[in-house]
Design a protein that fits this description.
Elements: E1 20-24, E2 27-31, H1 38-47, H2 56-60, H3 64-87, H4 98-108, E3 130-131, H5 134-139, E4 150-157, E5 160-170, E6 183-187, H6 207-218, E7 222-229, E8 237-254, E9 260-268, H7 276-287, E10 295-297, E11 310-312, E12 325-326, H8 359-363, E13 383-385, E14 409-413, E15 419-423, E16 432-435, E17 439-440, E18 458-460, E19 486-488, E20 492-493, E21 500-501, E22 507-516, E23 519-528, E24 539-540, E25 552-553, E26 564-565
Parallel strand pairs: 5-7, 11-14, 12-20, 13-22, 21-24
Antiparallel strand pairs: 1-2, 3-8, 4-5, 6-9, 7-8, 8-9, 10-11, 14-15, 16-23, 17-19, 18-19, 22-23, 25-26
Helix pairs in contact: 3-4
Amino acid sequence: MHIADAEVNSKGGRRKNKPQKRTRSGRDINVTLPDIDVDSIVNNILSSYNLMEFDTVRRTDGDRDSVGYILLIFDLLRRKLSQIEDVREAMPGVARRPDLRVGTILMNKGIRTNVKKRIGAVPGVEVGDIFFFRMELCLVGLHHPIMAGIGYMGLTVNLEEESVAVSVVSSGGYEDNVEDGDVLIYSGQGGNINRKDKEVTDQKLERGNLALEKSLRRGNEVRVIRGVKDLSTPTGKIYVYDGLYKIQESWTEKGKSGCNVFKYKFIRVHGQPEAFMTWKLIQQWKDGISLRVGVILPDLTSGAENIPVSLVNDVDDEKGPAHFTYLASLKYAQPVDSLEIFGGCDCRNGCVPGDQICPCIQKNAGYLPYTSNGVLVTQKSLVHECGPSCQCPPTCRNRVSQGGLRVHLEVFKTKDKGWGLRSWDPIRAGAFICEYAGQVIDISKIEELGGENVDDYLFDATRTYQPVEPVPSDANGVPKIPFPLIITAKDVGNVARFMNHSCSPNVFWQPVLRQSDKGYDLHVAFHAIKHIPPMRELTYDYGLPDKAERKKNCLCGSSKCRGYFY
């Protein structure tokens, strides 16, 4: 089935929306459903990228940049459409699947890579990469079928064509056994095993099953993508690329339904980076089944965070970083004076998408800046969160950066860059990671932080930063702060002080304003640029100062490394 058959037509044009009312705490809420041209929004976002780069060569054979580029565009568009659908009332009988809709748009425009089917590794995709939607696998050429679990291609052998398997997705739907990290017992497809509305039958040796049998005989490598359960995601799964496997044997056995099911034993090819095994090991740490090697402190925050932060050194004998006082959030001695009087919102059960009476939504150009699961829709010049004067609860979806850590972070000793920061949990693009906590210092005193007083734990919002995602509607996403903010975390700070610089970062900072009738506080929130697998170091670009400062050698190892940072 073509995806267009399973999704709302992407050429819907303008849709008329009637105003509606929702009642909350005795107050009628006028939810305005604007007349939105989705195609224009999509085209505006796509026009801000140099899509001419996707010529025939890059569509056929990708690289790391083109794969990252496509995934960035896909998730940005998906989050934007999710934000729009958040405001609209769901159509009866129609599932909202912005992932399928965006995938259709990108494929119709030729914005994809590795279109050519192949055996073995896919250019630009690394073992351990994670994906939150099946459509992402298709767009980067890792697994071409959108629904089927077995991907295969035709080969001409002795003037005869036969199909061989090139990729499989193991998502647990066919009684797959995924307990062993290097062995996968994969069940064949067909037989209506997962269909309660149809009669279950014996599986047949055809299509994908036949391709697996041919691959067993030929001994070709097959890409394996493992589906890991994650109830916090829209699909309930995260897909982990576990690398190349070979099929060792096959057989037929009776399934739970009593019908014959094909079974295939996959063995992982040696010499590849760990992927799924890392996930299994982390789960054992969380369950207390095995101990994390090199743990110095199980929680360096001493309970200041709602999730413990491990301090780990499995590199050398250093017992930890220099002493500092842990502070979970940036604190101001007093709010910064504001000429504007702001009494806050009256959304006692939380701000609701489309409520144009809500002053906090008005300040964010008519939309809540976060999706329902707390993901930032797009990088903005400034995000206005609910402040102390607002009547909404701490769980309000416009208070994302105020809720503390959502992932299990680890401060670890790197081999050549001192201490760094990474996560035990997967982090999806746009997700909040942490804020930069410390002490706000006066810009006039920054000149004093040189020579013997050099501060390696300084965040300077006045530096020049490259936008992560160029969006014409919001000043290209360049941070626009109401006053120069400089934070030192040398003596007082949180986990953000350990985040290293990279010229190709996976994290960006977002200025967040919390306003009240007494003034406002400006905070720095860190969000993921792209999907980040567990145990991959978190980094951001430290930016470029207006005046030349002491350069430091950059060891980020990126192909785009400029050789230094400040």
